[in-house]
Amino acid sequence: MTIFGAEVSRINGAQGSGPTSDEGKSRSSQNALKQRLFSKRRFIGDENPVEFESLLNSIATTYQPATATEWILIDRMVMARWRLGRLERAEAADAPCSLNLLRNGRDVSETIERSALVAATARATQRPSGDASQYIVAASAAAVLSALTSGRPRLMHLPGPLGLEGGYPVSVSQREVALALPGSVSRSEARELMLQAQRFDGIDSIDDRGDIRLTEAAREVLRSVLGIEAAAVTFENALEFGAEFRAKLAELGTKAHRGA
Fold first, then answer.
1. How does 42-51 read in b/e, with b if 16+ C-beta sit within 10 Å?
2. How remote is the C-alpha of 17 from its chain's centroid?
3. What angle in degrees, to the nearest 10, is found between the helix axes of 68-94 and 22-37?
4. 10 Å Cβ neighbour count for 68?
5. Per-residue model confidence as pLDDT tens digits over 49-106
6. What residues are paired with 156 via a beta bridge?
């Protein structure tokens, strides 16, 4: 019996014979699964059940589960994303970065524990899944376009400004796009930090053509987890690589569902 089935049996058994109609049984199964979704065993450390509920509602709204089987799949999707968030927070705490925190114009970076702040930020700003994520993309693009048509400079964070690798704080206006680095960080230092972060993410280098060379660690993950042999992603193989990656990822997901 699956965990879901055992939980349904336990709850139904504790409450008597329960509903007898097909509709009633389906509703009862869904209620049992919802109880398991919010079990305290799902949360570790300072994880917030309210954030989990928000993630659940986002995914459930996107896919509209109507049967117990569909709720099982939603359960697995939610938990996969929740656990991925744990990994992202753990990685964020160790990722190369430069952190300057200002309060009323005064640098208070030394008063903050960097790893705790980065982990908390990664948790609080977790990107939603499904269609909801597209609103964030659209809002970000709209903010940049608005700044480019404004006569007053606006501070924001942009990927790849001025042909540089990585993301940087910038000042954007109708007149120019300029780096807005903290006074303690030079342009060369910021670029070197971005290159370190790039390698942290599995990219060894990006050449002038835009070809992406993968680190050996990234290649090993592709090889051992997805069975893909790839040293680089180029203009010539990008579409083929993307199709293979997507197919292998779907295959991996199917295997995981069958084994769960």
1. eeeeeeeeee
2. 43
3. 10
4. 19
5. 888 888 888 888 888 888 888 888 888 888 877 777 766 665 555 667 777 777 777 7
6. 170
The amino acid sitting at 144 is: V
Length of the chain: 260
Cα dist from 34 to 7, 25, 40, whole Å = 11, 14, 12
pLDDT digits (tens, 9 = 90+) for 157-208: 999 899 898 889 999 999 999 999 987 789 999 999 999 888 888 899 998 8
Give me the phi and psi of 117, to 5 degrees please. -65, -45
Q: What is the pTM of this model?
A: 0.56
Q: Is 204 exposed, middle or buried (0-12, 13-18, 19+ CB in 10 A)?
A: middle
List the strands of the sheet with 203-206, edge to edge.
203-206, 212-214, 232-233
Whether residue 4 contacts residue 11, with contact meaning beta carbons closer than 8 Å, is answered with: no
Question: What is the rounded average pLDDT of the residues 210-235?
Answer: 90
- Residue 53's alpha-carbon distances to 26, 29, 48, 67, in angstroms, are 21, 19, 9, 19
Q: What is the DSSP string of 222-255?
A: IIIII----SEE-TTTHHHHHHHHHHHHHHHHHH
Q: What string of DSSP letters covers 93-117?
A: HHS------EETTEE-GGGS-HHHH
